[in-house]
Amino acid sequence: MKICCLLPSATEIAYAVGLGDEVAGVTYGCDYPLDARQKPVIVHSKLPRKLSASEIDQQVHEFVERGESLYRIDTEALQRIQPDLILTQELCHVCAASPDDIASALETLPNTPKLLTLNPHTLSDVWNNIREVGRATGHDEEANALASLLEERVREVSRLVTGRPRPRVVCLEWLDPPYIAGHWVPDMVEVAGGLDVLGHIAEPSFRTDWKAVLAAQPEVIILMPCGYDLQETVDEYATWDGPNDWTTVPAVWNDRVFAVDATSHFSRPGPRLAEGVEVLASIFHPDSVPDNWFDGRASRCSVECGRIR
Asked: Is 52 helix (H, G, I), strand (E, B) or coil?
């Protein structure tokens, strides 16, 4: 079977259930596991490189207003591969290529491949997506075992933090302008023993303003810009022009603003979300969980950011 993955999380799932050798095409963003970087790229971003956060937001807004996709499908590469199965998504047409993006490309193929559309909104949905990929590829046993293992990891986190006071949490999916993380992220916060005061489980991420963030008086702020790794997030915060009165927020003056690896543990609805839950628990309740859940996976951010310095 030849499989093409139109989003990084699908690539991760395919590899995790033992389909690495059958992955024949990936996107420009499929960087995990490392072997995925050697696969033919069939989806490219139209956004210029090295844009600031505000410039990226503006470019995305302009594409959406024009009704234009952010992605380019390499039709010739797809024709060479002749895939049997394409893994795609309908959750967010900004975050990854969608069935609409590939519709015209499919018309050029002599045989129409099977499409499996992943549309997760909660952690349970993500684990069930893993099982769906297993069923579609004859890897039911591997997929069921992986999903069950991930479910147990998350249950263990819940057991460790049960009865602990829940801190008020805000998860920022973007900084300029501010976006509140949605879908599975508030679910992760709840399981990890926090109270997401702005995000809602299974509901989309949304743009907000700093007035709303400040008014929420979060005790913990998690910086998880979509598509950023840990170091990129730390660097973004270091040069960011924070809002006036930033230091009046409890999370800020109590030194509980944290950068995380959004790409690995939060942005992509795949197996590594379980690790993201562990990271959050280590931030919310460090005395209740193993120390190594935090080490190298998150970074405490100084009160100082671009504007404050």
From this structure: coil
pLDDT at 233 over 60: yes
Residue with tokens 């790794």, as numbered in its chain: 229
> Cα(first)–Cα(last) distance of the chain, in Å?
55
- At 265 the three-state DSSP class reads helix
Give the residue from 144, 74, 133 showing the smallest Cα distance to 269.
Answer: 133
DSSP, res 197: S
Burial of 287 (0-12, 13-18, 19+ CB in 10 A): exposed
- Cα distances (Å, whole numbers) of residue 8 to 16, 25, 185: 12, 11, 17
List, in order of start, the domains of the chain with CATH numbers: 3-119 (3.40.50.1980), 146-300 (3.40.50.1980)
Alpha-carbon span 288 to 250, nearest angstrom: 22
Whole-number pLDDT of residue 309: 35
